[in-house]
Amino acid sequence: QVQLVESGGGLVQAGGSLKLSCVASGSIFILNAMAWYRQAPGKQRELVAGVTATGSTNYADSVKGRFTISRDNAKNTMYLQMNSLKPEDTAVYYCNARIVALTRLYDEGDYWGQGTQVTVSS
């Protein structure tokens, strides 16, 4: 079984910073691409940033220059450093990972964490 657990969310004032973490654990054979998504109330879930296993990154236009995604493959952990936060960044942030599990070596699965709330006050 594979689990993704996010942490680091909270309440912050506009202009502040937060750092999210996502730890992947369990029966992992290969941890491939990882990404952060977010979903604000009444809106669809959207991609915030992604990082490949080799470290290539991509960002939504709305967060470029403010957010930085990174990963530590030795720890099966992904991070999202969020600076200059705005009220419109308020959302539940979800960790996503493409994983080949030991119990399913023939296929790559798509896994999600439970989400962590980020609230930015004006």
Q: Give the termini distance in whole angstroms.
A: 41 Å
Number of DSSP helical runs? 0
Q: Mean pLDDT, rounded to whole units?
A: 97
Strand content: over 45%
What is the chain-wise order of helices and strands? EEEEEEEEEEE
User: Which structural class best describes the helix and strand composition?
Assistant: mainly beta
* Regions with little confidence, pLDDT below 50 for 5+ residues: none
Q: Helix proportion of residues, in percent?
A: under 10%
Rg, Cα atoms, Å: 14 Å
Cα shape: elongated
Number of strands: 11
User: The biggest beta sheet, please?
Assistant: 7 strands, mixed
Summary of the model, kept short:
With 122 residues, this protein is mostly beta strands. The protein has strands at residues 2-7, 10-13, 18-26, 28-39, 46-51, 57-59, 67-72, 77-82, 91-101, 109-112, 116-121. The model has no long low-confidence stretch (mean pLDDT 97).
Can you offer a commentary on this structure?
The protein has strands at 2-7, 10-13, 18-26, 28-39, 46-51, 57-59, 67-72, 77-82, 91-101, 109-112, 116-121. It is built from no helices and 11 strands. It is 0% helix and 60% strand. It has 122 residues and is mainly β. The strands form 2 sheets. Strands 2, 4, 5, 6, 9, 10 and 11 form a 7-stranded mixed β-sheet that branches. Strands 1-3-8-7 form a 4-stranded antiparallel β-sheet, with no helix packed on it. The N and C termini lie far apart (41 Å).
